[in-house]
Amino acid sequence: MEKNVFEQMAKRYDTDDRKESAKVIIEEVRKELQNSKSKSLLDYGSGTGLVSLELTDLVDSVLLVDAAKQMLDVADAKITQSGITNAKVLYSDFTKETPELQADIIFMSLVLLHIPDTEKILNELYKLLNVGGKLIIVDFDKNDKASHPKVHSGFIHDDLKNKLTEAGFKSTEIKTFYHGKQIFMKQDASMFISSSIK
Predict the structure, then answer these.
(1) Dihedral angle over CA of 177, 57, 95, 138, nearest 10
(2) Looking at the predicted structure, is the pLDDT value of residue 1 above 90?
(3) Pairwise CA distance, residues 198 & 76, whole Å
(4) Which H helix or E strand runs over 164?
(5) Which residues contact 177 (CB under 8 A, 6 or more apart)?
(6) Largest pairwise CA distance in the chain
(7) What are the C-alpha distances in Å from 23 to residues 43, 53, 161, 178?
(8) Distances in Å between the alpha carbon of 20 and those of 27, 50, 184?
(9) Residue 53 per-residue DSSP state
(10) pTM, whole model, 2 decimals?
(11) What is the distance between the alpha carbons of residues 138 and 76, in angstroms, rounded to a whole number?
(12) Would you say the C-alpha torsion 118, 123, 128, 132 has a positive or negative sign?
């Protein structure tokens, strides 16, 4: 079995750069979560909870899901230390097996680029959403300078929109919201937010 690189990174994952990126993402996602007080949020590929633990005040519950156990250990410690009562963690890899779960909102921040089979994961997430639920994806716009054999070099809006439609989503809105220096594999890049309704 291939070693999960995120396991080794867990303890030192929350760098200043990542915290800065997280702040930008949090600000954008908070706008998407207005009027979600009664909703459940599932953060897929949550890592240490850098983003979703800053959103717990906007939703009823947050489930942090990650395939790296040590990332979740860090997230769990944060939940305990902060006294957050409506968040918990789940160790799971939906690319291998999807547990029986339902959520009103599924959120993925800079995760899709790490998943080889985009269509498969979008189909799995679609199944987990309640009817009328929302899938929020934050990721990088297509950037040919950012190249790695195990990572997508970002996404073209129309391509992603088509994949979401094929997965069954009724409507998708995508917009670029941030341009940053050296934020994607040491390259200048832009991030988009996509919001799709089941």
Answers:
(1) 0
(2) no
(3) 30
(4) helix 157-167
(5) 28, 191, 192, 193
(6) 43
(7) 16, 12, 26, 11
(8) 11, 10, 13
(9) G
(10) 0.94
(11) 23
(12) positive
**C-beta neighbour count of 72 within 10 angstroms:** 24
pLDDT in tens, 71-130: 999 999 999 999 999 999 999 999 999 999 999 999 999 999 999 999 999 999 999 999
Structure tokens at 57: 């005040």
- Please name the residue that has the structure tokens 């291939």: 2
| Domains of the chain with CATH codes | 5-197 (3.40.50.150)
Tokens of 198: 């089941």
Closest CA to 130 of 63, 198, 181, 66: 198
SS3 122: helix
Mean pLDDT of the chain: 94
